[in-house]
Write a structure and sequence with these properties.
The protein has about 300 residues and is mostly helical. The protein has eleven helices and no strands. It is globular.
Amino acid sequence: MTLAAILNLTLAFLLAPLLAGVIARVKARVAGRRGQPLLQGYCDLLRLLRKGVVYSDTTTWIFRACPIVVLATAVTAVFLLPMGGEPAPVSFAADFVLLAYLLGLGRFFLISAALDTGSSFEGMGASRETFFATLAEPTFLLGVAALARKTGGLSLSTVLPAASPLAPEVGLIVLAFSIVLLCENARIPFDDPTTHLELTMVHEVMILDHSGPDLGLLLYASHLKLWLWSALVAGLATSPLVAPIWLRPVIAVAGTLVVAVGVGLVEALVPRLRLMRVPHLLATAAALAAVALILVVR
């Protein structure tokens, strides 16, 4: 593992909670409010770690193991992500398949824990999460397949640096991945992370019974997942930039923060979609990735 890879990992683990603060601040500024502090995510994590944990009598070991598994899959997924033009700490042929399976494993345990509580509301959220995932995951695989075909690489560490966003097909993939980013991280227009109405919740309703450090682990895992997708989109958008090796981590972090600003603008300006309209938007993302693949193989 190179020094640059270690630095990228350190920045990812330290700065991931900052993205939620950036998104919240952008939304507040657009609405004419001051907004919460940028470091609110860190404060929330520290507050949860100091609290106790309460478990329902109806839950089993699945509910208790869920936060650990979800965090472990998110941490492992970050190890597969190249940043700043540097190879990922863990890189091998078809590592993007492992990335998709890691995210899927974390989602599986989160859904299983929600069903384990026996709550009808959490079961409803789990059903919606499964519905969204079945439409979002093919988009990611189609997009990466198009990138692999275009660049001739089979690893994210070779595909991302070689993909120029000036190419039409790569631009389509960036748009498709941007839509999947919003879906995978339960952001508007797919979900509202700030809502308190159970009937409209998706991700938040699945973690209602988690408390204390367990909830903190899930919250940090969601921050890492948001960083992963934001860095992936930013990496595709900044791949042709040539910079000194010491400047590459700065460009990578700056690009990730710019993506967070974009997410904040979308949440401030775009209303949440009705549930029956969500497949249309995800189908659009899948169509963009499919068209990119067709352009590459034609």
